[in-house]
Amino acid sequence: MSIAVSVRPVSHPLKAPFRISRGVKTAADVIEAVASADGHVGRGESVPYGRYGETVDSVLAQLAPALASTDVEAACAALPPGAARNALDLALWDLRARRTGVSVAAATGLPIPSALVTAVTVSLDTPEAMGAAARAVADAPLIKIKLSAEDPAARLRAVAAAAPNSRFIVDPNEGWTFDILDGLKSLLADLPIALVEQPLPADADHDLEGWDPPFTVCADESVHVGGDLAALKGRYQAVNLKLDKTGGLTEAVAMLKSAKALGFQVMTGCMVASSLGVAPALHLGGASDFADLDGPWWLATDHPGGLRVERGRITPPKPGFWGDAKGAEGLWL
Fold it and tell me: Which CATH number does the domain housing residue 15 bear?
């Protein structure tokens, strides 16, 4: 079977600036991949991420050999984990479903739930602004709080006061030292914290060895693929699966099983992306302890037929959007 592949960069403006400890973005800059064969078309999307040395141009360059390959599936498997492999891997999964009539849900044994609670993110800002943002989503069961090293306690209190019925994922994006984390231990223990996500830089997480917090600490930047998991025991109690880190659904499905076998709680996360990039992760989210899949919620305009996030819950995309056995040509006009 001959598979033709094309890729292109796309920029999706955001409805509001998205700030974390490393910086701010106003658009989701993604790579779309299209794989076609026998009259069928599969699509995938990934997000080049600067934290991992990726840019739009570098990901396009990584994909160039696959575009010219006579064996696209082998070329995809040969790519390293990251955004390039993710875009192509997802397009191939989608194409395979449409060619064979076997959906991704059936092939993986991971159906998309009819409704899924997702964290909705309050991005980094002043305590007052973060409180206002939390108040606007206070009906969400789970809120992610982006923090930095600058007065995290005031920001935590502001969000907690504004959303008294929610649980929280606290995410400094590697922005804290161990002293900051340890100093916040009592405050965090008093709040309804679901997870504290990647508080320390990935190269400093040895400081977590043997530390016994009264909350669950989740690895994000410290974990990419299944081979990373064993070294995290004793430091983290949960791991964040993201398709852009694993390099696609193929590795992520195997990693989900490995993480659970090792006793980790699992959160399925995403970058700020469109529904095309996040819909595949719903298969993992339904089998995870937590989901953080509000990426499309940040877009000013998403794809027609994509997923919706309302009151902290995801409604899946329309049938045929991604990974279904039937075509979806009408959704992509």
Answer: 3.30.390.10
Sign of CA dihedral 275, 173, 54, 247: negative
65: amino acid identity, one letter: P
The tokens describing 200, both together, are 């320390």
- Residue 247's pLDDT is what? 98
Series of mean pLDDT values for 10-residue runs along the chain (333 residues): 94 93 91 96 97 96 94 96 98 97 97 95 97 98 98 98 98 97 97 98 96 96 98 97 98 98 98 98 98 97 96 96 74 51
Is 330 a domain residue? no
* 134/118 Cα distance (integer angstroms): 15
In a domain, 224, yes or no: yes
The total number of structural domains that make up the chain: 2
The residue range of the domain holding 81 is: 4-101
Regarding pTM above 0.90, the answer is yes
How many angstroms separate the Cα of 126 from the Cα of each of 3, 25, 184, 195, 292? 50, 17, 18, 22, 23
Note the pLDDT of residue 284. Answer: 98
For the chain, give the longest Cα–Cα distance. 60
Sign of CA dihedral 275, 278, 279, 280: positive
List CB contacts of 198: < 8 A, sequence separation 6 or more: 171, 172, 173, 174, 218, 219, 220, 221, 222, 240
pLDDT score, position 327: 57
Query: What is the total residue count of the chain?
Result: 333
- Active-site positions? 146, 242
In a shared domain, residues 144 and 287: yes
Distance CA 287, CA 282 (A): 9
